[in-house]
Design a protein that fits this description.
There is one protein chain. The chain is α+β, with helices and mostly antiparallel strands. It has a domain of 103 residues: Gcn5-related N-acetyltransferase (GNAT) (Aminopeptidase). It contains 4 helices and 7 strands. A 7-stranded mixed beta sheet has the order 1-2-3-4-5-7-6, with helices on both faces. α3 links the parallel β4 and β5. The chain binds coenzyme A. The site of coenzyme A has 17 residues, from β4 and α4.
Amino acid sequence: MNSIGKLLRVDSQEVIIEKVKEIDQKHFPNPWSYSEWMTLNWGHHYLYIFTLEDEILGFALFSIVTGDNVVHLLKICLCPPYRGTEISKGFWISLLNELKQLGMSSVYLEVESTNLRAIKFYKKNNFEQLRVIKSFYSNGGDALTMNLTLVV
Ligand SMILES: CC(C)(COP(=O)(O)OP(=O)(O)OC[C@H]1O[C@@H](n2cnc3c(N)ncnc32)[C@H](O)[C@@H]1OP(=O)(O)O)[C@@H](O)C(=O)NCCC(=O)NCCS
């Protein structure tokens, strides 16, 4: 642990998952329903929290197909007070280090085309934009797909 925070992998710890769901509901643009959270499969879903002094500052949820080395970033969310701060940088660097340690070679994601803050965040962190998927989201919004090659 340092003054920026600590990255921890979470699997079936109910209490922590409940707190993550609360953050998702409050701070994620397209939060998941209860039934969507119930579909998590710890064989290929990886949930990480970033914590400081027992507070969850943010979380990231990935899926990785067994035997593959491509990460699908399903959700990343930092609580609003920590956005644009050293905590945000620390969270992202810790995640990338973890993914490299897991032997991953790239990160793929979809982001809503109106989510300009997240798009800028990904672009400044070297993601390349791939294509647009029309009406990808349940609200009718389009998705941009993006990819980051992880350099070890
Ligand atoms: C996505 C997220 C993790 C990024 O972390 P962050 O700390 O906010 O990112 P940063 O502040 O480092 O980078 C965002 C950039 O967008 C800029 N920005 C902020 N609001 C913006 C807006 N409305 N339009 C365009 N750019 C914007 C910021 O100034 C910053 O650029 P800079 O570093 O050049 O100043 C965080 O914003 C978040 O949790 N958002 C809610 C959940 C979410 O949308 N997740 C992504 C879903 S795919």
